[in-house]
Write a sequence for this structure.
């Protein structure tokens, strides 16, 4: 029962309140008591409705953005329509509800302004699939063109979010990476979260935003967004797509699988500078399913049966993204070895040697794959170089009191890896490329660590070659900083090491 104040007009009639029960039965309503006499007599619920003032408790006022806001009797906001049972009792959810609600949310004018120019949308989507897609192919090009970009299709909020995220990642940033597009997209993602929507396309938009924040060195947002992606993906259940092979919907499961592997890659790469920080996503198993070949996927071929798994030996035929995933997997193993979980290095010494050999073998395959496709700065190669430099830095620390032979062997591995990155630096300087598909934001750490290796050589020998190598690597980072501001951040770190002498 909701109690209203008794307000009458000058004529003595009820102004705007009346008992809806009595009105429905066309009975005279005594409005001078909290519950009218007829309802008391027949033991009915007496309900009064305000037909003019929507701010009175018990009504449904409009929210700030125009969407209806349901309130309880105590005036507290009700749930947003998402079934809480999905998280509180999953067994009950799947046996009763069975599926998440299809919440086609209204598109805000702020979000719509990012993608309303058709010619511009076509331009930056073509740029995405030409330059960014090759090193992050987790969006199915065919599905995107036919179902999302198609003007005949339904315009849904999650699809508009994905298009806006593509625009963000393909736009070269100004002096401030937190542009109006970036801020508008972040606000829109928050509004979608508050609305109680869980959609796969929204997750893909979040992944693109995380890559943008990583590449533009927007911290701590990059770290937090990757954590959000991990939780979002687990909530949707796509984390299970790498654990089992689903042939019933090859297109969908392959795209979901690739999206989850991209989140794993982001989680691993974000921790290269801080190995003691715990990884968010558990280590995949040896039977985890790898992505299929990129070209075959684009052409609509079904995944191979049986599928490729983590324990499969790497080959050039696997495809570029599959090799990138394997590199991310090995990087995760390196981070676990160098992190706080590895307390007794003597027990793990044999495993470390095997891990180093495995990374070296994968590096060789990625270099062959890059040369075959004419790719100089190959994303899986630079991730392998980062992993090997981190691992051998740890080995050098463990062997610091051992014989010079063992120490020199580790230093030789580091110098060889740094020399490979120097070759890639020369390619960037020779071509002047900073935004093509070869250059991803996952290469900066390897450039940075290679410059540190040459700085250590310079400290010991005053080598002119080492000095030139440092200069060239810094120059390549400077060129790449026009596209990814994280490169400029690594330049600042190198300058700080030069001043402090910390190498």
């Amino acid at each position: 029962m909701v109690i209203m104040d008794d307000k009458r007009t000058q004529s003595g009639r009820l102004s705007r309140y009346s008992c809806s029960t009595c009105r429905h039965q066309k009975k005279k309503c005594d409005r001078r008591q909290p519950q009218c006499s007829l309802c008391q007599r027949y033991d009915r619920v007496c309900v009064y409705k305000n037909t003019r003032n929507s701010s009175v408790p018990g009504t449904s006022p409009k929210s700030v953005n125009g969407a209806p806001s349901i309130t309880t009797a105590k005036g507290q906001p009700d749930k947003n329509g998402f079934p809480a049972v999905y998280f509180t009792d999953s067994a009950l959810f799947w046996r009763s509800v069975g599926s998440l609600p299809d919440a086609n949310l209204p598109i805000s004018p702020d979000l719509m302004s990012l993608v309303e120019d058709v010619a511009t949308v076509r331009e930056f989507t073509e740029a995405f699939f030409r330059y960014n897609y090759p090193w992050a192919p987790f969006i199915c090009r065919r599905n995107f063109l036919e179902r999302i970009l198609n003007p005949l299709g339904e315009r849904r909020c999650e699809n508009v979010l994905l298009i806006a995220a593509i625009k963000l990642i393909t736009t070269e940033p100004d002096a401030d990476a937190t542009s109006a597009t970036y801020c508008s997209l972040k606000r829109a993602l928050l509004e979608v979260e508050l609305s109680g929507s869980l959609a796969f396309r929204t997750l893909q938009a979040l992944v693109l935003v995380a890559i943008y924040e990583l590449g533009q060195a927007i911290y701590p947002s990059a770290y937090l967004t990757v954590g959000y992606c991990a939780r979002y993906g687990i909530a949707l259940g796509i984390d299970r797509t790498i654990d089992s092979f689903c042939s019933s919907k090859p297109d969908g499961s392959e795209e979901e699988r690739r999206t989850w592997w991209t989140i794993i890659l982001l989680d691993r790469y974000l921790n290269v500078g801080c190995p003691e920080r715990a990884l968010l996503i558990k280590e995949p198993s040896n039977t985890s399913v790898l992505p299929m070949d990129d070209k075959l996927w684009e052409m609509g071929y079904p995944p191979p049966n049986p599928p490729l798994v983590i324990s499969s030996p790497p080959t050039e035929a696997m495809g570029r993204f599959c090799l990138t995933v394997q590199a991310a997997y090995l990087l995760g193993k390196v981070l676990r070895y160098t992190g706080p979980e590895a307390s007794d290095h003597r027990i793990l010494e044999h495993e470390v040697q095997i891990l180093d050999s495995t990374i070296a073998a994968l590096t060789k395959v990625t270099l062959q794959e890059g040369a075959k496709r004419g790719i100089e700065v190959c994303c899986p190669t630079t991730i392998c170089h980062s992993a090997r430099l981190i691992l051998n830095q740890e080995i050098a620390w463990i062997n610091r009191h051992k014989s010079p032979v063992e120490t020199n062997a580790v230093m030789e591995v580091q110098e060889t890896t740094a020399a490979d990155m120097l070759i890639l630096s020369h390619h960037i300087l020779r071509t002047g490329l900073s935004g093509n598909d070869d250059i991803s934001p996952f290469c900066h750490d390897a450039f940075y660590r290679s410059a540190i290796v040459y700085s250590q050589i310079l400290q010991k020998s005053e080598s002119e070659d080492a000095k030139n190598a440092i200069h060239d690597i810094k120059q390549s980072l400077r060129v790449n900083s026009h596209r990814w501001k994280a490169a400029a951040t690594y330049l600042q770190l190198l300058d700080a090491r030069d001043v402090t002498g910390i190498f």
Q: What stands out?
A: The CA atoms of residues 286 and 310 lie 5 Å apart. Residues 1-78 form one domain. Confidence is low (pLDDT under 50) at residues 1-17, 48-78. The chain has 20 helices and no strands.
